[in-house]
Design goal:
- This protein has seven helices and six strands.
- By secondary structure, it is of the alpha/beta class.
- It has a six-stranded mixed β-sheet with strand order 2-3-4-1-5-6, with helices on both faces.
- A hairpin with an 8-residue loop joins strand 5 and strand 6 (155-160).
Length: 168
């Protein structure tokens, strides 16, 4: 099976207003937490964001964040890297590194397997996992899952830009 080539974030499954809001917010450091079920499109979503919002605009973006140490993250920031991708964030240490990248004035794209890709559930898990991250004003939460109602290979994308913790 040949992977589909997406021409825009909207083609992938983002609402036009969300895609525009993402483009504006990701000009500056943010933590982007992308969650969903295994095989649900998290890495594809991060790749789309990396391409359309960084590579397409000639902003340095690296996909090896999960392999970097804190010193490596700091070096990437010194080199002017704008975005880092952290695949499969599963531990407190992983999440701490994601936040550190944002604190170094980079955008952190982090994927994590969460079976229920609805934003309130993601936020509750994130709040339990690390309340400091959940309280950040630079947090963007994206839930991704396959769109089974679509005849084409598309995704359902639930995107929130909290400026304060979401209500329970």
């Amino acid at each position: 099976m040949v992977a589909r080539v997406y021409k825009s974030l909207e083609d992938f499954g983002f609402m036009p207003a969300d895609a525009q809001h993402l483009a504006q917010r990701l000009r500056y450091s943010h933590v982007v937490f992308i969650a969903g079920p295994p095989g649900g499109g998290k890495t594809a979503c991060a790749t789309m964001l990396g391409w359309f919002l960084f590579q397409g605009m000639k902003r340095p973006f690296r996909a090896d964040g999960a392999q970097l140490t804190n010193e490596g993250v700091r070096d990437a920031a010194r080199q002017g890297t704008h975005g880092l991708f952290f695949n499969e964030v599963a531990t407190q240490a992983d999440l701490t590194k994601v936040v550190y990248a944002a604190d170094c004035r980079m955008v952190s794209l982090a994927t994590s397997v969460i079976a229920e890709p609805k934003v309130p559930q993601i936020f509750q898990i994130l709040n339990f996992f690390n309340p400091g991250v959940a309280a950040r004003k630079d947090l963007i939460i994206i839930g991704v899952e396959p769109d089974t109602d679509s005849a084409e290979e598309r995704f359902r994308v639930d995107c929130k830009f909290p400026t304060s913790p979401l209500p329970a």
